[in-house]
Amino acid sequence: MLGESAFWLSVLQIIMIDILLGGDNAVVIALACRSLPEEQRKKGIFWGVIGAIGLRVVLIAFALQILDIPFLKLAGGLLLLWIGMQLLVGEDDDGHDVQGSTHLWGAVKTIIVADAVMSFDNVIAVAGASHGSLALVVFGIVISIPIIVWGSQLVLKLMDRFPIVITLGGGLLGWIGGSMLLTDKGLLDYTGMLPGWSHQVAGAIGALLVVATGTVLARRKSPATARSE
Q: What is the average pLDDT across 71-75?
């Protein structure tokens, strides 16, 4: 059972992960509901968000189970390191190819399906941060979804104004990924004898690796992008 301080730290990690990796959700919701009549837009947003939350909880519950299979946490940890680097490098094109629907439940279906497609990185990261607690997952997501939906513009402005927020987010994913590598059941014969603080060391190494590599790749990408323009 997580201690009180560890519980709230994990909640904060889940909220930050959802904001950083789930920022596109607000865009998808807006695009899916853009063709609805004005009086149905709020209903579309509400039921779309409810459906997305339910689906996200189911996906993460499934992820919590399969991460107990030997070597899957190893794969998940390496994936998080890569995702963290990609977050720092940035994407060339947002390209949200989402069709708006003129019917309420059509828009809701679009939101839920798009969220499922976009949620893989989020699901793995939250599963790693939750330390196997589904209650913690649900609590963190319930808190973070309103922030994503209604506060995404503020978050995006903060990211634009303070790039350190993105760097910290990439470092967080690296920390969780690095820590996950030492908790894989397939490696317990080797990692089980390590002292408790080794998980913090692995997390710190993962964070430094993501931030350093992501920063270098982002700097290399900037001149190339400028030349292409």
A: 83
Alpha helices in the chain (DSSP H): 4-21, 24-33, 38-66, 72-89, 104-118, 120-129, 134-161, 164-181, 188-191, 198-228
Q: Single out the residue of 45, 11, 58 nearest to residue 146, CA to CA.
A: 45
pLDDT given for residue 93 in this prediction: 45
In the block, tokens 């990261």 appear at 125
Which tokens is 40 given? 């149905």
Handedness of CA 212, 214, 217, 223 (dihedral sign): negative
The DSSP call for residue 184 is -
Res 208: pLDDT: 96
For 97, other C-beta atoms within 10 Å of its C-beta total: 6
Q: CB burial class (10 A; 0-12, 13-18, 19+) of residue 84?
A: buried
Residue 29 in tokens: 């919701």
Structure tokens at 121: 């990185």
Tokens 């894989």 belong to which residue?
A: 184
Please say whether the beta carbons of 183 and 27 come within 8 A: no
Q: Hey, how many other C-beta atoms are within 10 angstroms of the C-beta on 225?
A: 11
pLDDT in tens, 160-205: 688 787 788 788 888 988 888 888 888 877 777 888 788 889 999 9
Number of residues written out for the chain: 229
- Residue 177 CA neighbour count, 13 Å, CB half: 29
Query: What is the rounded average pLDDT for all residues in the chain?
Result: 75
